[in-house]
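=== Structure Prediction Worksheet ===
Name of assembly: unnamed complex
Input type: mixed (protein and possibly other molecules)
Chain count: three
Listed entries:
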Amino acid sequence: MRSVVRHRLGRFGFGADYNPEQWPESVWDEDMRLMKDAGVTMVSVGIFSWAVVEPAPGEYDFGWLDRIMDRLAAAGIGACLATMTASPPPWLAHRHPETLPRRADGTVLSVGSRQHYCPSSPAYREHAAKLVEAVATRYADHPALAMWHVGNEYGCHVPECFCDTSAAAFRTWLADRHGDVDALNDAWSTTFWSQRYSDFAEVGPPRVAPSFPNPAHVVDYKRFSSTALLECYLAEKEILRRVTPDVPVTTNFVGAWHRIDVAQWAPHLDVVSYDSYPDPHDPDTVIQAAFTYDQMRALHGRPWLLLEQAPSAVNWRTRNAAKSPGEMRLWSYQAVARGADAVMYFQWRQSRGGAEKFHSAMVPHAGPDTRAYRETAALGAELARLEPLLGSEVDARVALVMDWASGWALQGSALPAGDLSLEETNFAHYRALWHAGVMVDVVSPTADLSRYRLVVVPNLYSVDIEVAQRLVAYVRDGGHLVMSFFSGIVDSDQRVHLGGYPGAFRELLGLTVEEFWPLPDGGTVALGSGGTGTVWSEWVTPGTAEVLDTFTDGALAGRPAMTRNSFGAGVATYLGTRPDRDTMAAVLRRALSDAGAGPVLSEKPDGVEAVQRGQWLFLLNHNDHEVDVPLPAGTVDALTGAPVGDRAPLDARGVLVAHLPG
Amino acid sequence: MRSVVRHRLGRFGFGADYNPEQWPESVWDEDMRLMKDAGVTMVSVGIFSWAVVEPAPGEYDFGWLDRIMDRLAAAGIGACLATMTASPPPWLAHRHPETLPRRADGTVLSVGSRQHYCPSSPAYREHAAKLVEAVATRYADHPALAMWHVGNEYGCHVPECFCDTSAAAFRTWLADRHGDVDALNDAWSTTFWSQRYSDFAEVGPPRVAPSFPNPAHVVDYKRFSSTALLECYLAEKEILRRVTPDVPVTTNFVGAWHRIDVAQWAPHLDVVSYDSYPDPHDPDTVIQAAFTYDQMRALHGRPWLLLEQAPSAVNWRTRNAAKSPGEMRLWSYQAVARGADAVMYFQWRQSRGGAEKFHSAMVPHAGPDTRAYRETAALGAELARLEPLLGSEVDARVALVMDWASGWALQGSALPAGDLSLEETNFAHYRALWHAGVMVDVVSPTADLSRYRLVVVPNLYSVDIEVAQRLVAYVRDGGHLVMSFFSGIVDSDQRVHLGGYPGAFRELLGLTVEEFWPLPDGGTVALGSGGTGTVWSEWVTPGTAEVLDTFTDGALAGRPAMTRNSFGAGVATYLGTRPDRDTMAAVLRRALSDAGAGPVLSEKPDGVEAVQRGQWLFLLNHNDHEVDVPLPAGTVDALTGAPVGDRAPLDARGVLVAHLPG
Amino acid sequence: MRSVVRHRLGRFGFGADYNPEQWPESVWDEDMRLMKDAGVTMVSVGIFSWAVVEPAPGEYDFGWLDRIMDRLAAAGIGACLATMTASPPPWLAHRHPETLPRRADGTVLSVGSRQHYCPSSPAYREHAAKLVEAVATRYADHPALAMWHVGNEYGCHVPECFCDTSAAAFRTWLADRHGDVDALNDAWSTTFWSQRYSDFAEVGPPRVAPSFPNPAHVVDYKRFSSTALLECYLAEKEILRRVTPDVPVTTNFVGAWHRIDVAQWAPHLDVVSYDSYPDPHDPDTVIQAAFTYDQMRALHGRPWLLLEQAPSAVNWRTRNAAKSPGEMRLWSYQAVARGADAVMYFQWRQSRGGAEKFHSAMVPHAGPDTRAYRETAALGAELARLEPLLGSEVDARVALVMDWASGWALQGSALPAGDLSLEETNFAHYRALWHAGVMVDVVSPTADLSRYRLVVVPNLYSVDIEVAQRLVAYVRDGGHLVMSFFSGIVDSDQRVHLGGYPGAFRELLGLTVEEFWPLPDGGTVALGSGGTGTVWSEWVTPGTAEVLDTFTDGALAGRPAMTRNSFGAGVATYLGTRPDRDTMAAVLRRALSDAGAGPVLSEKPDGVEAVQRGQWLFLLNHNDHEVDVPLPAGTVDALTGAPVGDRAPLDARGVLVAHLPG
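=== Predicted Assembly ===
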């Protein structure tokens, strides 16, 4: 199952979330006609249909869906059919108030929006399972069925529930993870602050407390919560696999948000799916999007599905920017370039009512005679010409290591700097790599690193020694590594690796950090190289490491800010501060050069993204003005089949998809 | 009952909230003497006296109030007697904890401040009714009784209660509004996000939920809540009307705050009353005050009562500014100019204890030998000379349309711009009208518009087609209209008028809006006219409309920003952005000129407000320096009876009340 | 018991919080060795050991503590032994959920951090008492026992609990304070807003309410809460006194935070203890620290104990700065100079896990070969040479009056300026005194003032007349007093002293304030002296007072801003605004000069703190650069015994402890 889309659809996944139950049947015929005109190959159906399909417990009404599925089949459009369990009908909470989730302060989250269920609730799980069985059985052999869409954006709004049902499930999970209560006490360091438990029965969720919570408790609760949601997914998947063994199963991640651990989930998806909502008002947004695409692709090392994006504006920010003409096409190709085999939208037809009526759609409130419809339909036609691309892969030689549990731990309290975030620190490094034009995989620390020439570790705060040893071995065997401060500090139970920081990487880096010296909010520190450090400084004592740069003002003046250590056959560079953008770019360019990890194109204008996927080269001009880009001889425009000369002109927001000479 | 005050008192209402129960009887004699010296004609009595008058359920103690009423009668001072139900005594919640209101997150609001009752609570309503019956019966024939003051500032602190009692009452209200549950599902668009209800029993208040609530649910709950409070008012009014058929009944609005729908309430008041608290630290405050006075006056199209204002500072802002010498007089005349037949204060004698002890009073902590007492007493004497003015009306030829439910809907979530507020958008337009010096009525969209030469519609987001047609007919019949963006978008159940925005006004405006393009927070867009647009831009496709101004930068460059459409016998101008102050002023000046709606005075210095009420002209100098103002020949100073020359000199913060020649 | 430390230890208290239960016994030997090397004389043991010592109700396990106490005794190190009641074990809340505290909004504070108990809970108090009895009995005669440490940082996280148990205790407290319910109604001014209670049973905590709470209710609840915590302390102290009549008892204050009224508590401590955590990122931090030390010393007028400070960084700010080399020593001497007989740290050995693992320690994660250990050990050695200093006192001739209840009242709502804080206003005055180089006692308004030449009253908002009369008498008898605005306004039940502000001090100051005119946020007002006023202005009418300075812009232009009144044999200066720093400095320098209250040194460089304690002079150079300071002839370096010349050179962050000539 290397490429789900090539295998099942044979075409790019192209389409949208389709909610025909919101419209009279009289609209459906126009829908089918417009979908065909737009080149739609697949739609996501039924995501929020539970209340319509099961208006009362056990009473199912599939009539309308039967008719939709038949029409889709007739139109040659695949259905990514939802299990419909993302949002229970009001009758569930009315009959089972205990299914409603609770916040850490005890607030009950009511019906009236969506995702109002406790993931550990037996009543929710039972009703969901019955529904999935009914849906799977009814449509198992339907010719429109292309894929299963389980739940929806798991954990987006309720990543953690703090109710008593969850508390009981947590205790079971803890017994499974830690064994007995003594082991729990040891793992959680409960001799601190008189927190020692004498029985699992005394443990609850990390609810609101008078002061800082136990960090191990907090992170374990996030692990448990991710697992509780995964259990919901797996229970549904098991039914689907049994009833329809050959139909691929997915669920759509909203990845970079830290709700669930996608690295834990990915092995259980047949294909990785992702919802991507860059903000046109944010100039960094395309780099952030690239990061998440590189993360999604690397989860399986195979093509993934862009299951949702906006044709133009979203509706949930304070000021919801529209996408300028060309922007949607440009950003769609960014996803394809970075491994997507599907380009789908939320939503097909813009809702008349409800909370997402101002989210853009392929068919807006104003109807199909609109740029939203024209631009999406034009893209659908283009993608049909790019089918040879399906299933092809990206060959990245640089890895950025990101660990979900480290991110959770950094969200905690009582840290040297309480405002570190994994997103920000990852982005500070990734941005430099993006500008350098190299292909990057965003991987977990347990990934196989041997294929990479350079591994960047922005902030692996929490890591067990056996995992850390994988990074150590990577360098010993000849790898190049760049690591930033506050990595290798605690184990997975938030216990410090003793003997001097960073306990897990002292030998690798050839240094010891004695104390952290975070800078004041907004403060900077001068560097000997002429740049500045931000956020952080620290008291580094080099051992075998050579000093690359020093602090030159403040109490740390003269002490090392960056170092470089030859270790085994490899090299480990260390950053004891967060350098400004230019300095970070210089540091990573040097590391890339030392490691022999080159860019896709050796020369390109600023603001142009060049990505290679298989034998295809994507040039994406994020500028508001024209540019032209030098290309290798023999390159062919993949959309027109025409040869491209030695310089490709690109319009403002223009795209070139080219086939490289063999 | 054209003018309640002229009819009942025959004099300006002038006085204050009077809380003699806070003071020993020894103080009361001084109170009467000072009130007479200050020209007091009416005081509000008993607003917070429930706990004193009914110390235990059913045990009434009216002795002190009898003595106060007798003294007032003896002094020739009218009593605006409260029904005393604004704040129940502690014993009510102690005996009936379910009377306490709850927030959307379930938090119970306790006793200890005021207004701690659930408006739907039967126990509250029963105890309130018994009290009102007792008060009404006791004082029905008392010579001091001038008016009934029901409750106090309804909804000020608890505009909505989310308790189970309220939930049950809401279900009854919903059945009444929508009929059956299918109609509710249709109105609320519940096919969205699996929100379909199978029974009214499943519906509750829009309590805290995991994500965005259903917008129709939210707005219906605000409608219900305004109605629940109105029912409290009406239950009391019914008793009063039965016992004292001839005594006018009012309650004091705190209007611009969006708590209750004053347009819904106004028909049930015999006279509109309003509490006004401009902030001396805010340079825009006098324009905002003018807006609310124009709104209050237009509710009945008759004089209204300024039932509360501060003699100097209030106590509830972070920094509570005192009114500078002359400022209180100036602002009082602003209210009279805009239709007030009463000028009253909170409060008579500054409390010694409690939460409002630092709110200024006619008799401050320092006693009557103070500027607060001297300035208020001087005003009392002046007002006595202006009695001919009582009952006279303001003849406005410009209307600004404001709809409560649109304002509620804009407070919601998941909108193109989440930070639009009806106050701000109304004010952006009203400010330009104020500077233009025209008289404005602030009216609801169902008002009779035929009398107006220009109608301004800043943001009528939510409007049913039949209501929208009133505006369309107004223009077709020759009216001039200026409408700003995001009007006519949804119906009263928050369902989009399909086919292109603004669905309810496309034909009137001669254009279609395809997409909204809100600007980034703080961002602007250049206009062809040389001005700038703020907050918003959009993709306008003109039909019959001519383009008045265009966007000149960004992705919308060259597209229309403002248009003008001849429609029937009238003209409709449309603003697709919020222009900067100067541009807004120019646009509205042109519209006023086209419509033939002229200012009160054709020429006046900046910062001088000129208002005409009946045959009286008010000149209000809001500047810190002297000015002089050209006047029509034959104008007479209404306070001195002396003729005013062709130029009236005004001191800093000075006022001229003049009688215009016949 | 003039000096607990001299009496019990005979040496400086020097050491740290010691939590050996967090470590395997194999570490303990190293601990003892390092402690001796570092000159440790005392450690705080057992503060958070309840859960370890009593793993189940009534089952005690003291084995590990016996062994620690024996080792300490063997090493000649005293134990400041905790009663262990600061944080109950999880089993207590599991068995008695009602012991968990509640916030004002009803949120339950759960186990998982620390201090999760309702101070009024009988179950908590009973379990605590049994534990204290067991601990006291077991170690009564242990040779290591030096002092009792009751609880820990009382009220730090839960200064007030709003549960039903607390409500019942509050009612009892109210009956005791006020007598009957009529007296309560009178004290609380409950005729306001219909708040009259007919029975104590109707009174609860000031829980979340619809609007502003009753200020008297709020302040009484803070008084009650401070008392409830004090009862916990006293119950434990009583047991300790009975079992070990000769062992001094203390608890550590976290004073300037306004949680508990330390002036109420101090008489019940045998020695005052304080935890001090200045922020190295804050340039004002050393002056703020000096303030708290002067407050702690003045509580008993005797030496106090610095029971906790950080060797370097803390862990609970957003960015936790490390102390630069020399800074910890410098700041430690600041405490000693201002009366500390102990210099102790949190913590001995940096925790491996839990919420404080990033708080610095004498023995960091990196071990003893670190500057943290070296710098603390060096200080230990120095202090041993300063034993003659123990027990000596500071002779301050200036007092700054601070009243806890006034501070609580200022935290309330519905004030002329809602953002006044006692910390800020005290600091504005204290800073000027610090720069002037005089010794100051921070005292309560009931202190004996006769010894002071100048008394500064920054903001004594709430004061009963009989207390105010003490200040009046002080001036009448020849004292000099400086008082700032918003003093003497209300009594201890938040009732205004009528007749003009400041009611309690009108005659003393020779003026009347008619109205407060707070400035806009960030606004200033010009003064005739050339300076500016901030925060506040007011309408002052001088009587006998002479005008020192006037407002020169705004509506108060020409009116008094500062005055000076000769009263009896003394002088009272009044500030009707908060002058800018330079003006405040000038005003207080003049007052000091008039009062004859001179500085420790007549001449010293900026940034050098000169403090005299007994016959010892401390020079503390807070600058980053060297200075030298002129000294009296005959001064001897107390650490070296060498004479100091007429100018003492001080390194950057350097310290001189000198003995002055007899």
